[in-house]
User: What shape does this take?
Amino acid sequence: MNQIEASHGICSNTYFSKMENHYVKPGESLLIPIAERLGIDAGLLLSDVIYDENRVNEIAELFWRTGRLGNNELLYFTIVSRESLPTGQLVKVFGVLMRHYVNLCLADLAHKEQARELFELSEAILPKLQGDQFYPDYFNYMLACSSYHADIALDHVNSYKYMAILERRMDAYTELDKARLHYNISLVLDKILEEKSIALAYSAKAYDYFKETKDTHRFIMVMLARGIQFHKVGMLDDSLKMFTEAEQLVDDKNAATFAPIIEFNLGIIYELQQRHDQAIEKFRKCLLMHERRPNQQVYCYRRIAQNALKLKSWPLLEECLLGGMALAEELGMMQDYLEMTYLRNQYWFMKQDLVKYEKEMKRLVDSSLHHEKFTLCRQYADELGQYYYDRNAYKKAAELFKIANDAAKRYRQFRLELGM
Assistant: This one.
């Protein structure tokens, strides 16, 4: 609600603004109706004693057990996160808050700015921890930060760095936490490494654990991850088996979470089987399911465009590239933006507009290198180099092959920096 709505019938909009900006201090007569208007516990605003260790522990325990944080509990944790708490308690509070906001963003990216502010605050307040103190709170906080970078900030390299720190302390964790960590590492490595077999090795460890413990929700998550990784290495039968088995475990409670993922990846399998019309149908269905998840919409646009290119359906290709590239650029999804730019360049090539193809492909190579997308840079430079080679333009071809070779070297250096 805006200031006018929040202040209506309580005080003037001007006075409310002064309270918000700390120019005046409201008394009890104002705080009680304001708290009621906002649907929070007025006692939190009136109490002189804010921090209560037992209450912090109870809220955190309930959150990690249920995954839910009520409005009053959220407000309380937000308040105490600014207090001079013992470090262990601060880690506990920020771990809950970070995971809560990541969960909110996964449902609606409108909370992205709140998540960013909270992450930056936690980085400023929390000391750099050494050893395994405050486990499992330290583990939960670090894993939440990793998820924030992977799912919200779309920075998979920094996401992996958080998990690499946790992985060095594996001996301290329970089997459940090891499985959670292995699962999350597999997702991130799938994004940043060419060698998908490494991601498969990590997800296999999580798969074995959750299958044995019959943790259905997490087991489905791992099955979906492995299904995606299988089709990326060309093991379509294994991929289809994973998605089919996962689909059988989905019920009414988790359908909203898992059905779009299953539909999307069945579309990918259809695409790889050259069943492009069926693939487009699946991706269109997913596009509607992700009405409030623009980043997921980008993936759908890109996949529809790929299949439209195969079918030479030019109006559909143009529609998807127009919507998908604008959205990807707005969200900072550079990998997807570059890949859709490549599809547009393929269109120029197929239409035999070779002047435009050459110009835009060179620009794409430079942009991929600028954004340190070394795998894409190598792919695009190789393709353009081969194009010039086939036309006897050997000098241009040599320049492009050198760029491709340098990109491959930088990718190997990138892996070394990650400790891979």
